[in-house]
Design brief:
Radius of gyration: 30 Å
Low-confidence stretches: 10-25, 294-300, 505-518, 651-679
Strand content: 15-25%
Mean pLDDT: 81
Largest sheet: 10 strands, mixed
Number of domains: 3
Structural class: alpha+beta
Number of helices: 13
CATH architecture of the largest domain: Sandwich
Number of strands: 31
Shape: globular
Helix content: 10-25%
CATH topology of the largest domain: Jelly Rolls
CATH class of the largest domain: Mainly Beta
Length: 679
Amino acid sequence: MEHLPMAFLVAFFLLCLSLNNLPGFCVAGGDSFAFSGFAGANLTRDGTAKITREGLLELTNNDAHVQGHAFHPTPVQFKDSPNGTVQSFSLIFVFAILSDPAYSYMSSDGMAFVIAPGKDFSSASPAQYLGLLNSQSTGPANASNHIFAVELDTIQNEEFKDINGNHVGIDINTLSSVYSHPAAFYDDKDGTLKNLNLFSRDGEEIQVWVDYDGEAKQINVTLAPMGVAKPSKPLISNTSDLSAVITEKAYVGFSAATGPIKSRHYVLAWSFAMNGPAPAIDFKKMPKLPNPDHKTPAKALQIALPIAAFVILAICIAVLVIVQTKLAYAELREDWEVEFGPHRFSYKELYDATEGFKSKHLLGVGGFGKVYKGILSKSKSEVAVKRVSHDSSQGIKEFVSEVVSIGHLRHRNLVQLLGYCRRKGELLLVYDYMPNGSLDKYLYGEDNRPTLEWAQRFQIIKDVASGLFYLHEEWEQVVIHRDIKASNVLLDGGMIAHLGDFGLARLYDHGTDLQTTHVVGTMGYIAPELSRTGKASPLTDVFAFGTFLLEVTCGRRPVSNSVQHGRALLVDRVLEYWHRGALEETVDSRLQGNYNIDEARMVLTLGLMCSHPFPSERPTMRQVMQYLDGDAPLPELIPANMSLLSLMRNQVSFDQSVLQYPWSATSIGTMTAGISVGR
């Protein structure tokens, strides 16, 4: 019996030694831990996150529009009390982002190390939101988020003022980084800054060190490729007090998300510690990334031959089913569409999302076709699917190219175009879903929608102006909307306005004879020069925006018909009251006088300025933004100018033939052989 304690100690030592040699074994103590691999690791995961057989933490699985999260299961004590100071912490992790082999030059959207008060990110969105926030919770820093993140971003998003499509950033309560830098590391051999690519086809492993000094309030982020020791100079060094950001106890982990381009986001190893350096990672135990070119050896012939007959029989039985299914979900694909692959949805995916385009999912008959609500099976994201008819291939290549180009537009006040699908005689466009529908239903009390207060209307006006300004002047090329109106302004769950259907009138243009005079737009919004020449410009958009301003403020349609008064334009009515010095009498009576009279008069006056018959007299959207934000005084209108506007509206500068059609809420367009245009 006296030898039992020694035998017990030896056995215990051997057990510990064997456990320590297991791949993915976590060394933990107090508020520190280390994973040199994740086999058997106890992590809280959701979405597409999983631990592979090799011990890799895979956050996304090469599907589009998905997200995955993985957190240490227990919270970390960052402060001694709720109002205390965040103590120092440090961490190391090794990651890799594998782009789809077919699109090795692109990846979306990125991943992040995150500290958050909870582990539930079910309300977060994929793509540019990285699975952390959504369109309502991001924007200006929201202190209630209590989120600190180090993002590894592979897509440039104008919405968040990203510096490029390959950068590292420090995020505090929002995805607009407080500091960011192109991915790189300082080489201690010569002190030079060397670039790093966050993603690759083969999967280059990159080390990341994050260190926070609780006394100095200093955040350092350092990168280096595998095989390189931690550089002495960090890539990012920023002073930010995290005491008001990180809660007393918070969870640490990772989030990743994809957009239209498929990518895999991996974490290979991870260590963390409070009030001291993070434990070292044993790189010898770190799992290997999958080889995209690896091919599994063939089965032995003696195994393959017995099942060959069964396989052939199964194939024969399945051929008929497959052919029938292919016919049901047949798509139109041509060689030139290869480059647009990441933005293309399968017809079956959209068919399933809308349950076969059932009428119960019909949102409405909008610009160019019917719009259906759908839920993508993989990401569970809500989308709007628009079915557009086209009768020939004439101009379709140029239009699809433009659709994909527009899909790169990222702005909080534009409806995000996610992608497309093409069938014979039909084009399907996929957008973000806006749960509160279109603005016109609120302005005119349709579907029992409540009356919008003035503050809501004024904010919607500024939202639409911001989106239009981005299209005209802030993106890399000018995008002319061509059909600005209340029914093309969609409201999300937070009543933030998003301008939709931009650029879709180009489908008509790409398929028509350049010598044909045609008008694309909506009655009451069409600028005089557009009705005469058919040539759109940013200033024809400004004209339509002027009508939109009057429509939102007055709660009236741009053109009205009555037996007593015939056909009348809203701008003429507002102009008449301007002459009387009684502009406020045109404000929507449903507001019952509860509005800011100075703001309303400014908006109505600006609406008249934008509706000037001479394009050169209209303000640009940059000027419009300055007026709405109060950064520049609104020019004073003189009676002579307004009399000229009234005169020109009834004479040569406005094509009176445009008003010969009965007014409707839909757009008009000349029909030509090959392409059928609805709105």
